[in-house]
Design a protein that fits this description.
about 130 residues, mainly alpha, DUF2267 domain-containing protein
Amino acid sequence: MEELIARVTNRTGLDAATAQTAIGHILSFLQKEGPAAEVGQLMAALPGSEAAIAAANAGEGGGGLMGMLGGMMGGGVMALGQKLISAGVPMNQMQPLGHELFAYGRETAGEDVMGPIVGSIPGLSQFV
């Protein structure tokens, strides 16, 4: 996980704690929205991913107005975006964050794992 966090911080300029929280939110989102078999393979290829998810979820508050708006919009990628903003990720860094995380996923888990994940979640392809 340290290598992934370092790559994300280098690419986005985020601090390590924000990068780890953002990665945790994205992985949690993939667990909820993606195909279970491929997401499981991705998680197995990323040591520390479960801890990152647990830490990101533990840091969540009630979501406030932005969380309510994300829920009203149906959740999905919009709700993930709101979580990332709440975690301190600027809008202009979401796409570089996604690119780096998914590039790392392709390197560690393979395209045969990442392709079905990206293809199964509406709207995700624009961020990766």
